[in-house]
Structures are given as C-alpha cells and as structure tokens.
Amino acid sequence: MKPTQTHPFDKKLFQDNVKRHLNVTYATTVESASPHVWYLAMAKAMAEMTMLNLLETEQDERVIKAKSVNYLSLEFLIGRLTGNNLISLGLYDEINDAMQELGHSLTDLLEEERDPSLGNGGLGRLAACFMDSCAAMEYPTVGYGLHYEYGLFKQSFKDCQQKEAPDAWQGIEGYPWEVARPELKQDIGFYGHVDVEYIDGEERRTWVPGMKVQAMPWDLPIVGYENNTVYPLRLWEARAIAPFSLESFNNGNYFEAQHALIDADNITKVLYPNDNHEKGKTLRLMQQYFHSAASMGDILRRHKAAGFSLDELPDYETIQLNDTHPTIAIPELMRILMDEQAMPWDQAWGICSRTFAYTNHTLLPEALESWDESLIQRLLPRHMEIIYEINRRFLLEVSAKWPGDVSKQQKLSVIQEGFHRMVRMANLCVVGAYAVNGVAALHSDLVKRHLFPDFHELYPDRLTNVTNGITPRRWLKFCNPDLSNLISEKIGDEWPAHLEQLEKIADYADDSEFQEQFMAVKKANKQRLADWVQEHMGIELNPDAIFDVQIKRLHEYKRQHLNMLYMLSLYHRLKTDDSFDMHPRVFFFGAKAAPGYYLAKEIIYAINKIAETVNADPQINDKLKVVFIPDYRVSIAEIVIPAADVSEQISTAGKEASGTGNMKLALNGALTVGTMDGANVEIREEVGDDNIYIFGLDVDGVDELRANGYNPYDCYQADPLLKASLDLLAGETFTPGEPGKLRATYESLLNGGDPYLVLADFASYVQAQEAIDHDYRDIQVWAKKAILNTALMGKFSSDRSIRDYVNRIWKLKPVKR
Ligand SMILES: *Cc1c(COP(=O)(O)O)cnc(C)c1O
C-alpha cells in the first residue's frame, strides 16, 4: 500500500463493494454473474474510489484558486480505463489478489472491457496522453469533449473488404467509469436571429436562438500516476429539453412532440470517422458549437465560483484548442463578454486574445477547416457578426503593416472571398490565440515557412513548437509488463514518471546477458501476439520471424501501399529467383479507412487479397506472412506494439505532422524504418543514425522533384523490380479468374500521377529493408539497436510535452495533493 494514499486500500471492503454492485447495480448474484458482469462490478467499485478523489480534487481550495488549463478537443481516444487506472492507483497486485479470491482472473476480466473509441487516431490519442500527463504532474486540468453515443465504427472484413458497424461503446449496461453531473447541465442555442436595442445610446445586440438543446456532462476520472489527484474528462451529451413541445404533447400529438427530441439527440449521436479530412457538414458544425459553448459556459462558471472577475480570466484559465475543431469558442467568448456582460469590444478582446492557444495538426489542404459563411450565418448568426468584426479589425492591422498590399489582405483574411465565401478556421485561430504550436520540430518549421509565413512576420512571437509525446504509463508500464520489470530491475522503478532515466539502460546495450533478457521479453511478447492471431484469425505465425508493423489510419500520405509494394517485391523474388534468400518476415497491418475514402478501402482490399494468397502458398514456405488485424484500436495497439521488431513510419516527407505511433513502437524496442518526416526526424536525433533506417526523399527533395515535374512512369520503366511488383496488381495472381480487381492502386500510382511519390521512394525503401534483413540476422547487433531505442526515448514522454506547454504557453504551477 502506498503511503501517499488518502483512502488506503481495504481488500475486504473492496470485495464487498464488488459484490454489492453485482447485486444492486447489475441485478445479479455471485453464483450467476457472467465474467462480463464481474468486470463491470469490479470497475464500478474502482470507479467509486477514483470519484471520491475527483470530487476532493475539484473542491480543493488550492486547485480552485490555481490557474488551470482547459483542453478542448472533439476527440479523446482514451482506450480502456480499468487496467491503466489500476496502474495509476498502484493497486494492480492488490486487486489481482482480491479478484483471485473471488474466483476470477484479473487479466481475463480486463479483456471484458470495450474500448471507448471516442477519436479517430493520433489527434484523439494525443489528447488522452496529455490528460494522463497533466494528472501525473498535477497541473490543474479539465478535459472537455463530446459524449458520442457511437464512437469510431467497428471494422470487420467480408470477402477481404472493409465493413463498418456502429460502435455502441457503453454497452447495454452503461460504461462503469463515467458519472453524470446533472447539476452542471446547460442549455445551448442554435439558429434564430439577432435583436438590436439601444440602451443609453449604446447599441446592444442579443442573439435570440430559434432552438435550444440541453448539454449533459458525463465525467470520466483521469487518475494521476501514484498521486491523489484525479481530474475530470468532461464529455457533453446532447439531449432534447423536456418538455420538448408541451403544446403538441397536450394535443395528443405525441409523435410530433418527439421530433425535437430526435433532432437534439442527433448532435452527439456519432463521431465523424474522417481522419485528416473535413467535409463541411451542418451536423458537424453543430457538434463543434455544442462542444465549444457547453465547455465555455462551464469554464466561466468555475471561474466565477472561484470568486474571480472576468478581467482576470487569462490569469486563471487558459484554453488549449486541439486543432481548429473548437475554434468557435473564440467568438462564443466574445459574445458572452459583450452581449451578456455588456463589455466594450476592446476590453472583451483583451481578455479573449490572452486566453486561447491553438495547436495545428496538419498542413494537408483537405484537412484545413473552412465553413460556408452562409452555414455559420444561419446556424450562429451572432457569431458570424463577431467573426466579421474580428476580421475587420485584423485587416486594419494587416494594411498598417503592409500598406496598399491587397494580396496580403486576401491571403490573411479570415474570410475567403469568392462565389461561396468561406470562413477559414485556422486563420481565425491564429488571429484569436496568444500562442500557436505545431506538433514536431519539422512540422512547426513548415507551419512558419509554408502555412502561415505572413502571420509569422506579423506576429513573430506567436508561432512555436511543442513536440508530441506519449504516456509511458500506458505505452510501456501497462502494455509491456515484462519489459517494464526488466528495466526496473536494472534502474529502479521511478522511470514511468521520469522517462529520461531510461537512458541508464544504454549502459547495458552491449551486455550480452541483458541483450538475451531483452530479446527473450521481445520473443514472449511476439508469442503472445502470435497466439492472439492464431485464436482470432486462424493464422499460424513463427515468432522467430521479423515482426514488421504498420498500424495507423489508412491514408495515402501514410503510404501503406508503399509497404504493400515491398511485400509484392518479396513475393515476386521468392517465386521467381531460387537464389533469393531472406529472413522470415510477418507483415502486420492495422488500419481503418474512412467509410467514404475509396482508394483507402481499395488498398485494404488489396492487402487482404495478397494475404490470402501468400499465406496459403506452400512455395513461400512461411518466409512471408501477411496479417491484417481487423478493428485496429488502442487495445489492439497494446498487444501489437510490445511484439514489434520493425516500425513502419513511411509517410511522404512533409505530410505527417508528428506521428505518435512511431514513439510508442520505438519505446518498446522496435526499430524504425522511416522517412525524414514528423517526429521521425527527432527520433533519429535521439537514437543516432545507426539505430534507425532512414530512406527516401526529404522535404527539400520532394519539393525539387515536384518542381522538376515528376513522372511515375519514369520510375516504373527504370526499375524492373518495381515494374514486376506493380504488374502483380494489374494481373490475376491474387484474384484468380478475375484479372484487374486490384487495379485501383496501380492506376492511382501510374495514371493518377502518384500524388504521394510512392514510386519515387521505392528503390530507397527496398534498400533500407534489405539493411534490416541483414542486421536482424545477427541477433546481438539487433538487440543492441533495439535496447538503444528503448533507452533513448525519454524525450518522447508526454510529460515532457506537457512541461513544454506549461513553460512556453500555459504558465501553470502544479498543485501537489
Ligand atoms: C497512437 C495511435 C494512433 C496514431 O498512430 P500514428 O502512427 O501516429 O498515426 C492511431 N490510433 C491508435 C489506436 C493509436 O494508439
């Protein structure tokens, strides 16, 4: 038992609580309860313990009076909470023991939890890691998100094609880790018009919404690592305001009255499944405003309850916008200050412009949000007026800086002129925020040089970098217990809160006994994954093969099709060249494609088809296996990452803002094969050139190639191996009797112009892969590199990212409890 705990663990009491929940909460008995209900009752008993700490943290006078960060994000990809919270509470062994006595295996029970997949990928997972780090270091934090009824769709494969099914993540019994906070509910308006009146000669504008929706908060506890701090992740659920329409209800027209309920319910019904792609749908903007308005209201409620004045808002609250999705919070705060608090513009703007900070996550044009002016006008008429006024004043600044330069005004304007006028949310963020950051050194540099060069000239201190990170609690201590124990034996057990200490295991990189232990752990993790694949997919794997892993959303810029082409080249060689030798390799993929992304789905189909043929080909003799794990999510990542030898981070240079999968894999001793993109650049700086396989064009090389006119056919004609590999897709090798069924990728790479330069990087990629094949054959050489990867990942703890945010942007102090 940890001395720091304010509520010491009492095994008997805990067991009684579990049994009480079996009876009272889940209406079952010790004798008849299913394993799933045992998990629910156990989680509920644990959640109770953390809720006490949440309320105590929330009511701690020192926390109330301290400056806090409010992390606004439309996505929090938190993953399962039970196992991770056991680690943070320091009660893994105690509760293992308590459940054992009740006749249940803790590991089995933990497998009963469904992932809350309230995010798409990296951006949502980053938000979850940041919450974990804020709680671990006790920087006062509230996370604000949405309580989607359905998270990211569940993926399955039917005849090798992706199928999507709704993800009812709460289950019919409800999710045990959340609690409703009805006393904090709010009403949120939409549509309507703006009223104008004159009071003492002063114009006062008031929004009169045409529709109101109730925002109900659900709190999930974010448990600090081995401390007593628990912060809320507050997720807003949309509900109809009852009585929805009393008149039609009383008329006996019950079903008409339910219309309002149906509309309001829709707002948080489902997470939009697009990663790095925005589509400008009305309901999505409604989600964004609903989230921003409810969060803004709650922040101001807390600020007021603490006894502070509105002028002090920037001193006690900072609001971090995770991408532009919550941008509408900026005009919302202006509206509240001016229309509800009667503040003049300058005073309101003085507060607003010192409160918000914005994180940019992408340079991809299709991912940059811009909304139809007419849509905002209709949905949020008062906010549109405020946006015009923000822009009018901003453009005066622009013309003062660059007198007479109309093109500068056009470029920087929040409003994009044209037939359909659009509101550029990123521009609004840069104008309204006191700090703007990219998520890796290279990305932030490109934000300054390519995305916002003129903003950077106008506001030279505004743009900065905070390199992303991952929480070492979930991504090493929890998911890889054997490696964690091995590390702790050598360097003590403080490293999960001080990841830079891992550097001390570099001393053992040449120690052959440690190398053996390290590789034995890797082997056991590979066996665990192989068992999982055998059980769930019926594919038998050799744990001595190289486990080569590419797990991330499916996107052309991430170039799963480059990896696929390399697999095809190996297949071609194995089939046609008797002298060709290679170390056995298993290619693992995990990736969901957005349901409307045609080519991404075709790439999944092709990889699955290739897998079918290759895995069944006796001539391949198990040299090559392809495993596409369905429904990639956090809990799958937790099994795959500890088992990986090779980490595929092969995006076109300049396209991946940071990546965080790259960090998780390297931390668990996988070697990266990657381009000079995102955080790969910084991983290379940390581990050194000998311990990473860098290939392909860098950002300058990409620019140069495009400037000179890129023709993918040149690569195709010049490289026989590439040609042979690509041609396999055009034929019927993998679709016997149906030639051309895998042509979509082939077409995109040749006639489609190969927009992500797959063919340009192919030869260099093959070379890097051959170096991997060569190095892996000497297991001591490989072990040393793998150990050094784990040892040198200290920088990529999200604790470091949060310290950077605190020092460069948020200016907070921890409150140690
Ligand atoms: C870490 C993570 C991601 C992000 O992976 P990248 O390789 O950085 O794109 C996406 N999804 C899940 C489930 C993750 O855990």
Automatic annotation (TrEMBL):
Any Gene Ontology CC annotation: cytoplasm
PROSITE patterns: PHOSPHORYLASE
Keywords per UniProt: Allosteric enzyme, Carbohydrate metabolism, Glycosyltransferase, Pyridoxal phosphate, Transferase
Pfam families associated with the record: Phosphorylase
The enzyme's E.C. designation: 2.4.1.1
Cofactor(s) of this protein: pyridoxal 5'-phosphate
GO biological process entries: glycogen catabolic process
Catalytically driven reaction(s): [(1->4)-alpha-D-glucosyl](n) + phosphate = [(1->4)-alpha-D-glucosyl](n-1) + alpha-D-glucose 1-phosphate
Enzyme class, first EC level, given as a word: transferase
Single GO MF annotation: glycogen phosphorylase activity
Modified-residue entries (N6-(pyridoxal phosphate)lysine), positions: 664
Taxonomic superkingdom: Bacteria
Database matches in PANTHER family: GLYCOGEN PHOSPHORYLASE, MALTODEXTRIN PHOSPHORYLASE
Functional note: Allosteric enzyme that catalyzes the rate-limiting step in glycogen catabolism, the phosphorolytic cleavage of glycogen to produce glucose-1-phosphate, and plays a central role in maintaining cellular and organismal glucose homeostasis. Phosphorylase is an important allosteric enzyme in carbohydrate metabolism. Enzymes from different sources differ in their regulatory mechanisms and in their natural substrates. However, all known phosphorylases share catalytic and structural properties.
Family indicated by similarity: Belongs to the glycogen phosphorylase family.
Protein name: Alpha-1,4 glucan phosphorylase
Organism of provenance: Vibrio palustris
Taxonomic lineage from the root: Bacteria, Pseudomonadati, Pseudomonadota, Gammaproteobacteria, Vibrionales
